[in-house]
Every structure is written in structure tokens, then in C-alpha cells.
User: Fold this.
Amino acid sequence: MDQPITLQADDIVLEARINRQANDRAAIIAHPHPLYGGDMDNGVVMALVEAYARQGWTALRFNFRGTGRSTGQFDDGAGEQDDLQSAIDFLRQAGYDRVDLAGYSFGAWVIACWSRAHTRHTHRILLVAPPVAFIDFGNRSPIPGLTRVFAGDLDDLAPPARIRTALPFWSPAARMEVIQGADHSFWGHFQALQQAVVKTIDG
Assistant:
């Protein structure tokens, strides 16, 4: 079910894979920081893909520019927002009416930045381990569409206490799920994260 495809972001060609399930609802999964080894095959990314596929959603993941076989080079979040837009455009043109945006770590930041630049969008947003202790997340700025945040209770890059302080500013209606025993990598806790995401998808 996992099919390789390419996406076009201006002159950048992005390596991507799509797990086709439903033809009306899909999720885009954004990966962690490419300069620290993050890519679309990351374990958390795959847990998110599997969570959506389990609920019958199509799931699209891709490598940001300069990662894997994607052309171009790292652009500190600016060009990466264009990469995300290309994934959104691909799914919209394919007829998907509902498109969730789910990002892990750096991918969460890219989605938050994109959302703030496109405030009238209609996407539901899920953020996993937004690294508020590593990147400036604009803790008092709204993130339109934000529904749920997931974090490990041992995560020093995305400390739950700091996220709780920011959450009312990001989205008063959003909720946070804390995965006990998990750090930023969620190693050993992929299943717990996946189960929490599954409950959110159609909840």
C-alpha cells in the first residue's frame, strides 16, 4: 500500500511515499530535523502513518528539501513550508476533502509556522513533541487548526510544562496527551503514541 511518488515545490523535487486508504480523507506527516538525522522513515513518523492507516485514512509522508533523495538544501523552515504546501496541493488536486497536518519535532514547527501564515486554512493539526525548548515557537501566537499535542513526560526538548503554558495561546480548544516514560525520541513508546493518535483521529 506504500507507494513512492514525487512532489514538486517550485524547482525542488521531493521524495515522498503515500499509503493509500480512503479517497476523501488524508494526513500529511512532517518529519523531524534533517540536520539531526530526521527523515520520512523516522519511527515516530511511521507510527503516525500507521495510526492514520489503521483508521482508514490515506497517509502521505515526504522528505523535506535536501533530505534523502529530495533536491535542494535545508532552508531553516522557510523553504520547508513550501514543501508542506506542495504536499497539501497534491492531495487537494487528487480530490481529498479532509487533510490533516501532523508533524513531529521540527516537522511540528514547520506546520505551526505554515498555519500562522495561512490563518484561514481548514486543516486539523496534530503536533508531536513540539520542541519549544529548542526552537522559538512563538508561545503566545495562535496556531489555527491545532487540535491535539502529544509529548513525552521525559522530553527535555518539548517539556510538557512549557507546552501547557503555551497551549491556551496556541488554541484554547486544543488538548495535550502526555505519554508516560517517553523522551523526545519516543523510543520504546511508539505503540503508546500510536494508540493515543488513533483515539484522536476519529474522536
Observations:
- The mean pLDDT is 97.
